[in-house]
Amino acid sequence: MVVDNEAKENTNQILKEILTWKSITKLTDIQKKAYPYLFSDDNLIIVAPSGAGKTLIAEMVAIRDIMNEWDSESNIYISGHENRFDNQLSSKNFENVPAKTIFLVPLRALAEEKASNFAKDYRHLKVKIHMSMSEIDFNEEEIRKCNILISTYERFRTILGRMPDLVYYTKNVIIDEFHLLGDKKRGPILETILTTIIDKVRLILLSATIANPKDIADWLRGVLLVSEERHIPLEYSILTSLDPYKQISKKIDYNIKNDSQLLVFCGTRSKAEEFAEDFSQFIFTRAKQKKDFDPGKVLAFLESISLPNDTLGNKQLYELMQKGTAFHHAGLSRITKKVVEELFRQKLVKVLFCTETLGAGVNLPAREVVIVDTKRWNNEWLSRNVFHQIAGRAGRPDYDFYGNCSILANDTQEKGAILNRFWESNIESKNTFSSEINAKPRFDEISSMILTKDEFEKLILTLIYSNKPTQKELIQLLKRTFLDFKMMKMLKRNVDNEIDIDYFSEVYFKTLVETGEDFEKEKLSALELYYQIDNLEISKTIEGEISQVIYVKENECENNVSLKQDEFTCSCTHNDLFCKHRLLVLKQLPKVRVKRIIDKEFSFLSKLQKHNYVIETAKGKMNTTIKGSICAEMGITREKFEYLKDWLMLDLFAKKPSLSQLLFECQKIAPVVEDSDYFIDILSFKRPIYEHVILGRDMLSVIRKHQLYEGDLLRIEVSIKSIISGLAPLAEYLGLTDISKNFESLDKILSEVLRLSF
User: Fold this and answer.
1) How far apart are CA 101 and CA 129, in angstroms?
2) Any bridge partners for residue 404, and if so which?
3) What is the 3-class SS of 127-171, one letter each residue?
4) CB 103 within 8 A of CB 150
5) pLDDT band at residue 694, thresholds of 50, 70 and 90?
6) pLDDT tier at 519 (50, 70, 90 boundaries)?
7) Which of 132, 317, 507, 738 is the most exposed place for a label (fewest CB within 10 A)?
8) Which residues share a beta bridge with 563?
């Protein structure tokens, strides 16, 4: 975009003012690279280590645009984006709506930190900030009025569906931790959001280092800005010992003696608590020798904010924090976490034992990080990106000249495995290595997580819910997904240059979406491009009365494809969209049967229409029905939606439950609906939730009585609230009037209970 000199000078002045307000006199490497692009409206993909100053870039964009708008004559005029508003200003709901910047984050804690920082740093501007995290704080009027909206990925997906015009009044969407595009749970949600808003807003994506940032930049047609320069240099060491206590003791002793702090990351919350307790006396002995440590200050701080000292976690923390240590995990209340974080910032907590949730949460660096466990509770490796994000907490900007990350290993074999996984160089003979040794970190490559039929069908339903496209427009939306980008990239690498892969990409998505009168040869050719079968052969076939099993040989491996009537599965993967083994078998079958199988395997739009989730208007626009909208908002599969429908009709209706019974029934199905890996027995919370929600007892009295973590209780209640918000309209749709009213009543009760609790 061409920027005139007057606009550039005005922007330059605004940016200088922002730096002055924040007392910043020198830009970091990534900030210097980004500065020229702040004058444009280019999409920016910004990749740099933790602490490199990425957030400031996003803030400058947001504040500059707010101030520019205030200088304009019209409240909805946005400098440089006039073309994005053509014929989009008719909605009365958006009269006098300020253009806004939307910040999307994965966690509520990150949202609260951003809101707090904005309110503090720019309070003189009286910027209107609104957080929308869940049903509890979904407020359309506040969303319309605010200058800055801060939301989670999941909540913003719903906002897009309920308020589709909002995107036309949005100048920027800033996505923090965008590497979660490759996360199994959040990835499909983030990809759907980005697919919907590409070319409608300016996108600014922030992440620590990933393996393939150019892919993201090319997909979004953005400018890639990368810096490997950490504000504070980071050194690593791998310590081999069968006695982790000995190694941690050495680190504690060294850091406290040198007036520095230590973060110790543990694989489980129980280990974090255990270590904090076990090392507390040792830490206290060392800490009380330092002039800046005063247990009296800790106690005075705790008493000044009236932190309960007799609840689970808090009781233990009260004593631990007065000894200079603490633990931090998801079970703690928001207030308790903030207390721990603040005392750590004040250097009164010298050593903090924590789980990986702190690594992805608030900004809380220390001079040294110790990673006790490189694997999770289920023995799965930490992702490389999460590992390096945790390690990146070492080194405090403006305080330290270096940071150090120590990783514990049992023996040299485990050390070698850690080296091979997290670094590109294998230096097994070295006990320590640093910047002087050429060992580059290894990062995970981000791929599309739209991998299964269920996820693809959810993608289609959500795109229709948010965009109301024609069938042709839906195909074009699918061609804007990261899934298509990655597949096209693979095709460009593997097929003849003379093949029009863009055309076959469209044919491929048509194959997935629609039922045709005939199965054209080109559809099979499109599948063949994506699932190449050159190195496959059928080794044998076993015929049964109603089924057959075809064995497909691939080099030295063999997979079996099962064909029962028109059910078509493969031993290599049962949930994948498709696979090359099934394609080879498909090519051997009669054309009529191939069409039947393809229609059964794919034709997702046709299925959604057939089962009344989607309808087509007279003008050819696709729209979700009531149940389609409910399904899209809940973010569940059609299969789960049908399960909930049957549960309401066949089970709940017969029980005619009271409010308390209804609450427990929703509690029982929560893990099924959400596919959550609960670390706790959710049903064991029956009585506490009943007392808190139905009887209206104070949260503190409930967690005291039942010895629960406040964070666990609230997390379950928020989950139930989210489910109930979808079940109320579903029950009404099914004609279950009494149950629907009970859901609505329970929804209001939960909203008030959670409002008071948060």
Assistant:
1) 10
2) 235, 368
3) CCEEEECCHHHCCHHHHHHCCEEEEEHHHHHHHHHHCHHHHHHEE
4) yes
5) very high
6) low
7) 738
8) 548, 568
More confident residue, 389 or 262: 262
- Reported as type and span, the H/E element at residue 235 is strand 234-240
Q: Is 29 within 8 Å of 57 (Cβ atoms)?
A: no
**Residue 266: which residues within 8 A CB-CB, separation 6 or more?**
272, 275, 353, 354, 355, 372, 373
Tell me the residue type at 641: F
The domain made up of 5-226 has a fold known as Rossmann fold (3.40.50)
Say what percent of the chain tops pLDDT 90: 56
Tally the residues of the chain: 758
User: Smallest Cα–Cα separation from 253: which of 293, 208, 287?
Assistant: 287
Confidence (pTM) = 0.89
pLDDT at 695: 95
Helices (H), 563-625: 580-586, 591-601, 604-610
For tokens 């964070």, name the residue: 711
Using the predicted structure, report yes or no on whether residue 505 has a pLDDT greater than 80.
yes
- Enter the DSSP assignment of 192: H
Mean pLDDT (whole number) for 334-354: 95
Residues 6+ apart with CB under 8 A from 389: 50, 208, 359, 360
Domain range summary for the chain, segments of one domain joined by +: 5-226, 234-433, 453-624, 636-757
The set of residues, in sequence order, having a beta carbon less than 8 Å from that of 187 and lying 6+ positions away, is 180, 181, 448, 449
431 pLDDT higher than 50: no
**Token representation of residue 246:** 């000995």
Contact 446, 181 (CB under 8 A): yes
Q: What is the CATH number of domain 234-433?
A: 3.40.50.300
Of 514, 543, 532, 614, which Cα lies nearest the Cα of 581? 532
Strands 234-240 and 403-409: parallel
Task: Please give the pLDDT value at position 84.
Answer: 35
Instruction: Write the CA distances from 145 to 118, 128, 139, integer angstroms.
Output: 17, 8, 10
H-helix segments, 258-346: 269-287, 295-304, 314-321, 334-345
How far is C-alpha 178 from the chain's CA centre? 8
